[in-house]
């Protein structure tokens, strides 16, 4: 069974192969959404973008990005500079061990943003 490690929450959970990251995080009580988005989100339809996470280890153990996810992330400022690690939890299936940072901050002054 794959293990998901949530770094902010210092929590590890084991999930069945192919499990949906959003569902498993919520089931485990991991606060996936920032602020008001905990109640005002699209519930997994890939339209709000508020379930974004960083997969800091094990990206190869996740499902591939689909068109809907790529389109949604492509219009997000937070995606700039995080193209290799950012995913929408609701669109990510877990096939092996991964490490996840939930609620990544928006760094408008990072080295990648204005370059
Ligand atoms: S829950 Fe809205 S994009 Fe994932």
Walk me through what this model shows.
With 115 residues, the protein is of the alpha+beta class. The chain has one domain (3-102): Ubiquitin-like (UB roll) (Roll), CATH 3.10.20. It is built from two helices and seven strands. The radius of gyration is 13 Å and the shape is globular. The model has no long low-confidence stretch (mean pLDDT 92).
Task: Spell out the blueprint of helices and strands.
Layout: E1 3-6, E2 11-14, E3 19-20, H1 21-27, E4 52-57, H2 67-74, E5 86-88, E6 93-94, E7 98-102
Parallel strand pairs: 1-7
Antiparallel strand pairs: 1-2, 3-6, 4-5, 4-7
Bound molecules: FE2/S2 (inorganic) cluster.
FE2/S2 (inorganic) cluster is lined by residues 41-42, 44-51, 88, 90.
């Amino acid at each position: 069974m794959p293990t998901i490690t949530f770094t902010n929450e210092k929590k590890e959970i084991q999930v069945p192969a192919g499990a949906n990251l959003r569902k498993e995080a919520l089931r485990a009580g991991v606060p996936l959404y920032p602020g008001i988005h905990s109640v005002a989100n699209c519930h997994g339809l890939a339209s709000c973008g508020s379930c974004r996470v960083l997969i800091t280890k094990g990206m190869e153990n996740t499902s591939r990005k689909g068109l809907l996810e790529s389109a949604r992330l492509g219009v997000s400022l937070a995606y700039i500079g995080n193209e290799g690690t950012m995913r929408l939890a609701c669109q990510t299936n877990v096939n092996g061990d991964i490490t996840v940072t939930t609620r990544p901050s928006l760094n408008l002054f990072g080295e990648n943003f204005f370059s």
